[in-house]
Design brief:
Layout lengths: L2 H13 L11 E6 L6 E5 L5 E4 L4 E2 L2 E7 L2 E6 L2 E6 L3
Antiparallel strand pairs: 1-2, 2-3, 4-5, 5-6, 6-7
């Protein structure tokens, strides 16, 4: 299975699992791409989704890192790590 299809499979599982996400908070719903070109899909509290990459401004912060299962944002100079639901 490729990295991209693995991310799509995990996103589909999360999207169809009851209570997998806290809908009242910013959530990570998918990570796609090769390690040197990762993208992450965030779900905002209002239901809007956004695809981000390192350096992107999102949710009042800046995406500083994306790995296979998480994204880190710098929020007011402090790191905020969002992980995919288990």
């Amino acid at each position: 299975m490729t990295q991209s299809s693995s991310g799509q499979t995990k996103a589909a599982r999360i999207a169809t699992t009851s209570n997998a996400l806290d809908l009242s908070a910013l959530s990570l719903i998918a990570v796609t791409g090769k390690p040197d070109a990762r993208r992450a899909i965030l779900r905002h509290r209002n239901g809007r989704t956004e695809t981000v990459r390192p350096g992107t401004s999102a949710a009042g912060g800046t995406v500083t890192a994306i790995d296979a299962g998480s994204v880190t944002l710098s929020m007011d100079g402090k790191p905020l790590r969002l992980a995919l639901p288990a």
